[in-house]
From TrEMBL:
Native source organism of the sequence: Anseranas semipalmata (Magpie goose)
Any Pfam family: FAD_binding_8
EC numbers for this chain: 1.6.3.1
GO CC annotation terms, alphabetical: endoplasmic reticulum membrane; focal adhesion; NADPH oxidase complex; nucleus; perinuclear region of cytoplasm
GO molecular function: NAD(P)H oxidase H2O2-forming activity; superoxide-generating NAD(P)H oxidase activity
Catalytic activity, as annotated: NADPH + O2 + H(+) = H2O2 + NADP(+); NADPH + 2 O2 = 2 superoxide + NADP(+) + H(+)
The keyword Transcription regulation is annotated on this UniProt entry: no
Source organism phylogeny: Eukaryota, Metazoa, Chordata, Craniata, Vertebrata
Topology relative to the membrane: Multi-pass membrane protein
The UniProt record lists the keyword Ribosomal protein: no
Entry protein name: NADPH oxidase 4
Amino acid sequence: MAVSWRSWLANEGSKHLFLFFWLSVNVWLFWKTFLLYYRGLQYYYLHQMLGLGLCVSRASASVLNFNCCLVLLPMCRVLLAFLRGSQKVASRKTRRLIDKSKTFHVTCGVTICIFSVLHVAAHLVNALNFSENYNEDFLALNAANYRGEDPRKLLFATVPGLTGVVMVLVLFLMCTASTYAIRVSNYDIFWYTHNLFFVFYMLLMLHVSGGVLKYQTNLEEHPPGCFNPNKTLRENMTAPKAFVEPFPDYTTEPFPEDLSVPEPFVQNNFMRICSEEPKFQSHFPETWFWISGPLCLYCVERLYRYIRSNKPVTITSVISHPSNVLEVRMIKDDFKARPGQYVILHCPRVSGLESHPFTLTMCPTDTKATFGVHLKVVGDWTERFRDLLLLHSNQDTEILPIFQQRRYPKLYVDGPFGSPFEESLNYEVSLCVAGGIGVTPFASVLNTLLDGWKRYKLRRLYFIWVCRDIESFRWFADLLCMLHNKLWQENRPDYINIQLYLSQTDGIQKIIGEKYQALNSRLLIGRPHWKLLFDEIAKCNRRKTIGVFCCGPNKISKILHKLSNSSNSYGTRFEYNKESFS
C-alpha cells in the first residue's frame, strides 16, 4: 500500500517528528548539564570526590526538572478547552496539536521514569563515593560524617535520601498502574495511584532542599588546585624551593601584599597562589523554579473546577436502553458546551473520591438547556450509579417536570472539556466511524445538526456505526431517523451517508419498528470493507481534505489510521483523529 507523505505527515508523521524532537531536546539538555559539571571549576573539588556520578546525577536531574515542569500542563483541561475554543488558535493544525495533550503527558511520564532510573543509579554511586572518598580537608563538602560510613545511612537517615526513596516507590506505583492492562481491568487502581502525584511533588520540594551537592563560591580567591601559603603545610607535603627561600621562617601570618611572587613561577603556572580557604555553598533549589509555576497553575485550575462544579445538577430523566446502556439527562445553570466535548461526573453516594469522564450525547442550545450522557454499565462505579438512579424510577423513560422530580442522588458535573471530535464540524467532509458505545461523541454532533446544519462548514458527513447486536442501534435510532427525515424535507438527502453494520447476527436482521424503515435499508451484515470505503469516499471528494474520526476498538482504529496515511489517485487527503476509551 503506497504511502502519501502529506497524509503521513499530517497524521502519524507529526507524532514521530515530535517524539524525535522531544528526545533530542532531552538528550541535549542532559549533555549540556553533564559538561557543565564535568568542566566547571566551581565543581572541581566535588568532582574529584564523586567522579562521573556527580555529572550523571546532575544532568539527569536537569532533565527531570524539565519534564516534571511540563507533565502537568496537559492536565490543565480548562486551559486546553479555552485555547481550543478561542479564536486565537485559528489554525486547525495547531488545534490538532492540542488534541495530542494525552500523548505529550505520557511522553513526559515515560521520560521521567527513564531518567529517574539513571538519577537513582548515579546517586547510589555518589553515596558510596562520599563514604570511601571522605576528605578531612573539605569538611563542608562531605555528605558522610567519616570515612567508611555505611552508605545506607545517607539513603535512609537524611532528608534527600529518604524523600528520594519514597519518591521512587510513588513513581513505581504510578507507572505500573498506568499500564493499559491495569487501566482496563481496574480503573480504580489507576485513578487512586495517579492522584499520588501531589505527594510526589511535595516530596520533590523537600528532596532538593537538602543541599547535599555544593559548589565553590570563591574561585577568584581560591582557584582549584592552588597553593595556600597561609596554611600549615601537611606533614607529607614539601614546599617548592621557590617558596622556601623567601619564607625561611614560615608562619601563619598573612601573606605580605607587597611581596612579589617569582615571575617564572607565575608564568609557568606551576602552582597558583590562593589567599583563602575554599568556601562551599549549596545550590538554591532550582526545582522550585521549574515546577512552582505549573503546579500553581494546576492547583488554581483545580480550585476553579471545584467551585464551578460545586452545585449539583438537576436530573430531569433517566432512560434505560438495551445492552446495559443508561441515558441521563440533566439541567445546570449557565452550562454551555460544544458538540464532541465531554464532562466528568461525580456522585458522592457512589464514591466520595472517584469521578469518571463521559462524552456528551446532547448539548444545550439556545432553545433548550438540557444536556445528557450515555454510559455503558461495565464496572463497579457504573453499576452502583445505575442502581441508585433506577431505584427511584419504575418507568425508566418517563420525563417529569422539574417541580415533580423524583429524589435522584446528588450528581456533580465538572466540565465541559475539549476533545478531537469538536473538529468534525470544521471540515467540509467528515468520516465518522463508531464501534458500539463509541457512538456517543457523534451523537452530540448529530443532535447539533438536527438543530441546524447551515451555520457549520460541514457539507457532507459519512457516518459508519458497527455494533455486535441489533438492539444497540436503538440507542440513537430515533435521532438518526429524525435527522434523515429533516434533511429529506430540506432537499439535502446527500448531506449525510449512514451505514450501519451488524457484525454478529442471531437471526434478527432489522431494527423492529415501522419508523425505522429508513435505517433498515442502510443496515448491512458483516464488517465494513474499509479499503473500498476509503476509495469510494476519495473518488467522490477529489482533491479535498477529509477529517477521519474514530471512537472504537483499537483494531478498527489501526486500520483507519493506516488507510488515512495511504495515497490515492484522486488527490484526496485524509486527516486522522481518534478518541480512546482508556
